[in-house]
Design goal:
Helix content: 10-25%
Mean pLDDT: 78
Low-confidence stretches: 1-5
Number of helices: 1
Radius of gyration: 13 Å
Order of helices and strands: EEH
Structural class: little secondary structure
């Protein structure tokens, strides 16, 4: 299908259900507030210090502004 952007599935790190709208700061299935890695934008548990996807230091990336 030319011209259609492939949709990436993002799952909640708490309940593992697909997050329908990743723009919202919470999981629509379980209602828990989620955190996105400022470097790779993957959902990570709120208490994470390191992103399990890209290995970025969450606090360091937030301080840098996600650049």
């Amino acid at each position: 299908m030319i011209g259609k952007e492939e949709r990436r599935q993002v799952c909640c790190p708490y309940c593992d259900m697909e997050m329908i709208s990743v723009d919202l700061p919470y999981c629509q299935a379980c209602g828990i507030t989620t955190l996105s890695c400022p470097k790779c934008s993957e959902s990570v548990p709120r208490n994470s210090k390191v992103c399990p996807q890209c290995g970025a230091d969450i606090q360091e990336e937030v301080a840098k502004g996600g650049e």
